[in-house]
Amino acid sequence: MLYLLDTANIEEIRKCSEVFPLAGVTTNPSIISKEKKDFFSIIKDIKSIIGDKMLHAQVIGETESEIIKDAETLREKIDGNLYVKFPVTLEGYKAMKALKLRGFKITATAIYTPQQALLAANCGADYTAPYVNRIDNISGMGVHVVSMITELFKHHNLETKVLAASFKNVQQVHEVAVAGCQSVTIAPDIMWKLAEHPLTDMSVAQFTKDWENIYGKDKKIYNL
Ligand code: G3P
Question: What is the DSSP letter of 137?
Fold first, then answer.
């Protein structure tokens, strides 16, 4: 499964990149706005950390022509491994179809139902992003929606991948992974929680204590 980081915070991206096997970063207008900085300088900073890993950046325009102009500008100003994110509005589907023909790499976002994902896949989306926690908040069973989309893509031999998004806890991430979802985008606080466990730290503390009792403090294998 591919792990992407759902943030535009440079410090978080730097810290998480050091530890985790990240496949890229995803942003959206809300995430970008939290940083209160010039849009393209945020993008430049993110790229300086992630290099040619995937960067998913979202259009703002609402009509097909505005969306297309946003996408063209993103592609013109951001080199490398760029995926343009299109919300699955009616205008968004139109823009995806048009831009797929022009070789854009496409992420369909703000997905709440399996049929939206299937339509987006048929419009040429490379990734589809269902919003797990937001679906849970309307009692829509976010993990089940992700599971159905994953099955639909398999069933219809589509190469489009599921990039599950909007997580508020580790269990949601775990369950979409079990459902066969190919990729997830996770905010840093959940990413750290996925990795850590207090019993792991306790086990390591015991290993160190036992070792030091015999070999001495500050002795590692390299300086015996
Ligand atoms: O990538 C989409 C995601 O950012 C939405 O997440 O946490 O705002 O529901 P959230």
Answer: T
